[in-house]
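Reply to thread "Modeling small-molecule complexes from scratch"

Following up on the discussion above, here's a worked example others can learn from. I took a protein sequence and the SMILES for pyridoxal-5'-phosphate and predicted the complex. Inputs first:
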Amino acid sequence: MFFFRLSIPRTHSLTKHPASAKQGFSTRAIHAGQEPEPATGAVNVPIYLSSTYVQEEIGKHKGYEYSRVSNPTRDRLETNLAALEGGVAAKVFASGMAAINAIATMLKSGDHVIAGHNLYGGTPRLFNQVLTNFGLTFSYVNTSDLKAVEAAFQKNTRLVFLETPTNPMMELCDVRALCDLSHRHGAEVVVDNTFMSPYFQQPIELGADMVMHSTTKFLNGHSDGLGGVVVCTKPEQAEKLAFLQKAAGAIMSPFECWLILRGVKTLAVRMVQHDLNGRKVADYLAQHKKVQKVFYPGLASHPQHELAKRQMSGFGALISFETGSLANANKMLRKVRVCSLGESLGGVETLISHPATMTHAAVGEEGRRKIGITDGLVRISVGIEDVEDILADLDQALEAI
Ligand SMILES: Cc1ncc(COP(=O)(O)O)c(C=O)c1O
């Protein structure tokens, strides 16, 4: 059963109709934390552009002292995102990487982390080039392979960090089975749920201890702001993260919070359209004679299609495909017009990218070879334009190969 407690921030005391745990996803997306502003009735959450807050006397204030510590717009977003992922609380950060860094800094020197071998390239870059300098150690394993994960546990393993589907090879991890295994070994599980969004995948329901997102992607949805969130299942996690917001200061600005509050109102309808378009583009690529292989969990040919149907309520918009060589990838990418060649994903516009030179450049040639990222691999984040136009664009671009 899906369970969560909604934390109502201090500013909501006058709210007449707080969003309830029993309400549906879209209702929560539009109303949780987004209740009308009590002072004026404004239906949208105001952007509280204030670094500080006046106090009546020493220690007597309305719950806010300084915006690095807390801010009313940020509180509202944190309430909203906790409600969407089914957590007890959420904490937002300046970017997805700042959120991952905050999770890692909840650990102590000497702790060990098991991480998926096929993560967004920036994640192992942070782990290997920054956090190993502070006494954390990391083992990279294929989190689809429970035996490999089991073999990687050490006495000091505190955390298992994974993405499902992985970026960009679209491998799935059985979250429930991996959580059971990790909990038996005394480790917590963090799922980077950026690719699916809470609309299609609810890792907390499957046993995850924390969920993170680069909100830069589907949650914002409009490619106009950076951000990250960590959704917690235990109040102690939220307390530690709140302390890190205050102590380290990598918080999300009130304006970016507002952009996401606005973006999530249409998350459900966007995801439905992303998924519809994604399935059509995957089918089209799968039968194209110049495309050698397509990686998409929605295709019956995907080795984990059954797990995808069980664990996710949609297949999403991320598809990778093999063009055969760097030259072929470049020939087609030079030709796209409706699709935009660029890093990132999850915006309303179709974004197409080249993992080997973009998101996974930092992993190095050997690292890419190990996880199957070739120079000919192209990743597409299918947008919500008219799908016929996306298909026509891909059709003329693939002609160039
Ligand atoms: C799956 C995933 N996680 C984390 C990140 C990092 O997020 P940000 O770019 O917001 O720092 C990204 C960025 O592309 C990503 O794709």
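What I'd highlight from this example: The CA atoms of residues 314 and 346 lie 15 Å apart. The pocket of pyridoxal-5'-phosphate is lined by residues 95-97, 120, 122, 163, 167, 192, 194, 214, 216, 226, 228, 344 (CB under 6 Å). Questions welcome below.
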